[in-house]
Amino acid sequence: MTGGARLPSSTLGKYNVSPYNLNLAHIGTNDKLIEANNATVYGDAMTNGGVVGDPSHIMGIIRDDFYQPLAPVEAPDWPAGTVSPIYATQPSVKSITSQTTLVGGTKENPARYVVDSISLSGNNTDLRFTFGTTDGEADPSKSYVEVYVKNGFSISGQGSSTLDVGMNVRIWVAGDVAITGNGLTNPSGNALALALYGIAPPEGTTREFKIAGNGVFYGTVYAPDADLKLAGGGSSGTFVGSIVSKSAFLNGNTRIRYDEAIAGPGVLANFAIAAWFEDTRR
User: Fold this and answer.
1) How far apart (Å, rounded) are the C-alpha atoms in residues 91 and 22?
2) What is the pLDDT of residues 155-204, one digit of tens each?
3) Which 8-state DSSP code applies to residue 56?
4) CA-to-CA distance for 186 and 174, rounded, in angstroms?
5) Residues facing 65 on adjacent strands
6) Domain map of the chain by residue range?
7) Which of 36, 45, 216, 259 is the most buried (most CB within 10 A)?
8) How far is C-alpha 225 from the chain's CA centre?
């Protein structure tokens, strides 16, 4: 659902929006169909030679010549000496299931962590991203964290994950993602501060990214080989940022709003025309 700076919502496959959703973004697909149902789209809707179902609530233009080349996501290949242990006192622990704090590094040398999985569900199971220190004091320049999750990433129930204001977090996930419960909180309100990358699965297998709940998710998702589900609840369930996925299904009270702060620096920064015909008649 993300097309980068100009196209904050694109997807490889079918884009299905259930009734009563409000999408404050453009939507585009490299496939043939966008099923808008009764959703209101304050932006453009674009397919690759396809159609838009129930276009009456599309406030922008409708085009059928959209195509966005999508780069695959591969697992990070970090030198061993650049990876920090999750727990300094328990370096053998490879999964995050309880209260954990990951500290940042500088932009040039971000703090990197490799984990088998992240699973947060009970009380006091918050994964916090915070500044590194210099001379024992929090150093705002040490705000960069990169995490490679070899398997699944899930937050449910009372589990949560929080970025301190000013942090910049990038997470690569090689398994399914399910963010519900208290969710992944980015209180800065800047979608550029948080990025989730879905690593391409082995051939013949699928991946699912699910983001649900009543809170506001500020961030970007780039998972061109994953099926995406956004499910809002109550009166919120707002996603602020941009999304790329293999297919997308939105229901409940989901709202999407593009954050102009992410224009330019993301994986995608433009789009291509699938076909062109010039009418030379006078």
Assistant:
1) 45
2) 998 899 999 999 999 999 999 999 987 889 999 999 999 999 999 999 88
3) G
4) 22
5) 48
6) 74-199
7) 45
8) 13
